[in-house]
Design a protein that fits this description.
It is built from eleven helices and ten strands. The protein has about 280 residues and is α/β, with parallel strands linked by helices. The mean pLDDT is about 85.
């Protein structure tokens, strides 16, 4: 990281530069006048000692991390923080504390930029979904999102969580759930074992969303693309499984068996093998 030191006490400035350079930082020392026209620094160490317009310097370095070097707490420091300075450190300066502040603020800035980039990507991809805000608000949970592409499900969850004013957590296993008011998003539901699937499906009146490629027999489900209705040839055993899951709320096992031309025992064996539990209607 490139650090600019603006300090009237030349001995202190040189000492700071030497110690920070030993920590692998690159340092320059400049006067306030020189610093006004140079914004190519990651961090500005700005001394509050001296008669100069520190607010003007802060405004000139909006993109940099600004740490104030101060002798005592005053209203000037509060004004500087309001104007955009990030933090302050009291003299005499402990170099370990200064290094920690520089590192933490640098990490925070990088995460903030990264978060803003992700937010922008999500916004660009969910604007079309959020147009139906009233519809999203009325969607009840638990919910099953059906699509051949998990990316579509991920975007829908982002949009739904935003409209409902909730955060969401991507959960793999039931035991990974995080306490608190948010949506638990089970993104890998179909690869769970039968016991874990049953545990999730038995959760009633909870903020749960599962992603699947075929219907899981939940009361609330949304098909996000037409491909989820099958547009490709699949093995007969997979097709039987698909039909059981997709139509169990419409037809009995006997009716499904008759339509497929298979025995009822085969349907029951499929249920047992894949952990497909028929949801009882209350």
């Amino acid at each position: 990281m490139k650090i600019l030191i603006i300090e009237a006490e030349s001995y202190l400035a040189a000492s700071l530069a030497s110690k920070l350079e030993s920590e692998q930082f690159s340092c320059d020392i400049k006067s306030p006048a020189q610093a006004l026209n140079d914004d190519d620094y990651d961090v500005i160490l700005l001394s509050m000692s001296g008669f100069f317009d520190y607010l003007k310097l802060i405004n000139a370095h909006k993109k940099s991390i600004i740490i104030l070097l101060v002798n005592y707490i005053s209203n000037d420091i509060l004004e500087a923080l309001k104007a955009g300075a990030d933090d302050y450190i009291l003299k005499p300066i402990i170099i370990e504390e200064l290094r920690r502040k520089i590192t933490l603020l640098g990490d925070y800035k990088r995460l903030k930029i990264l978060s803003a980039s992700y937010e922008n990507i999500i916004k660009n991809n969910t604007d079309e979904i959020i147009k139906n805000k009233n519809l999203l608000k009325n969607i009840s949970l638990p919910l099953c999102l059906i699509s051949q592409e998990r990316f579509k499900s991920d975007l829908f969850v982002c949009a739904l969580a935003k409209v409902k004013g909730l955060n969401f957590a991507r959960i793999k296993l039931p035991n990974d759930e995080i306490p608190g008011e948010h949506i638990d998003y089970f993104y890998d539901f179909e690869n769970l074992n039968a016991q874990d699937k049953k545990k999730i499906l038995n959760k009633k009146n909870e903020n749960i969303i599962i992603y699947a490629k075929v219907s899981q027999g939940m009361q609330n489900q949304i098909i996000l693309d037409e491909k989820s209705l099958i547009t490709e040839i699949m093995p007969i055993q997979e097709y039987i499984k698909f039909c059981i899951i997709s139509y169990q709320d419409i037809y009995t096992d006997i009716e499904i068996a008759n339509m497929l031309g298979v025995s009822r025992k085969l349907i029951w064996d499929k249920r047992r093998k894949h952990g497909i539990t028929k949801q009882r209607k209350i």
